[in-house]
Amino acid sequence: MRLLVIDCATEACSVALFDGGLLIGGTFAMLGRGHAERLIPMIEALPGHGRSRRIAVDAGPGSFTGIRVGLAAARALALAWDAAVEGYSSLALVAAMARAQHPGQAIDAVMTGGHGEWFFQAFDADGAALAPSASCSPEAAAAMSRAPVVAGSQAAALAALRGGGVEPLPLWPDARALGALPAAALLPDPIAAYGRAPDAQVPRTSASCNQ
């Protein structure tokens, strides 16, 4: 069975098509902006225009606009194709990509958040999350980080805050790497996980996290 993967929750935008677990097509681009304009042409360029019976989409945390674009596209295509939609976490995929390079290692995933914060989540050597994802100040993320490998768009910055003995892997979620993600990380009926509470709230201290 074919599986279409859509990932546009971060600055990157990527799509991939798997058939029987094998990657048969995919594209990755660092866009920053303009995901809505580029996503559908990227899907149409896949073999068979990406048509599949299963669709997996990055549900965040990440960009409000990018997450909405990805979920809307996945749901619209699922309706047209009578396909099932599943979701996964951007941080879980980044951690899985890093674990593929460092088998048997615990991974801390850290991505750019909003308003100067970072999205942070720790994973054990088997890919299981040790705690829910959090939107934190850089200092709070550094205080929580313990893994020998840190991965994500803010990996180098987190490694610098922690000091020596940490290997940074600058990575962004890539739909073509979905095969590295544990099957249990794909969940039905995805709900957007923006990673931050609404901005209209009581201010928190600089070392706090939103979970």
What does this structure look like?
It is a single chain. With 211 residues, the chain is α/β, with parallel strands linked by helices. It contains five helices and twelve strands. Residues 198-208 have low confidence and may be disordered.
* Uncertain residue segments: 198-208
| Largest β sheet strand count, sense and barrel closure | 6 strands, mixed
Between the first and last Cα atoms, what is the distance in angstroms?
36 Å
Output the structural class.
alpha/beta
Oligomer: single chain
- If you average the pLDDT, what whole number results? 92
Helicity, as a percent range: 25-40%
Please provide the ordered H/E string of secondary-structure elements.
Answer: EEEHEHEHEEEHEHEEE
The tally of strands reads: 12
Q: Determine Rg (CA atoms, Å).
A: 17 Å
Name the features:
single chain; 211 residues; alpha/beta; six-stranded mixed beta sheet
Question: What is the structure about, briefly put?
Answer:
The protein has helices at residues 35-44, 64-81, 90-101, 138-144, 155-162; strands at 2-7, 12-19, 22-30, 54-58, 84-88, 107-112, 118-123, 134-136, 149-151, 167-169, 187-188, 209-210.
List the helices and strands and how they pair.
Blueprint: E1 2-7, E2 12-19, E3 22-30, H1 35-44, E4 54-58, H2 64-81, E5 84-88, H3 90-101, E6 107-112, E7 118-123, E8 134-136, H4 138-144, E9 149-151, H5 155-162, E10 167-169, E11 187-188, E12 209-210
Parallel strand pairs: 1-4, 4-5, 6-9, 9-10
Antiparallel strand pairs: 1-2, 2-3, 5-11, 6-7, 7-8, 8-12
Helix pairs in contact: 1-2, 4-5
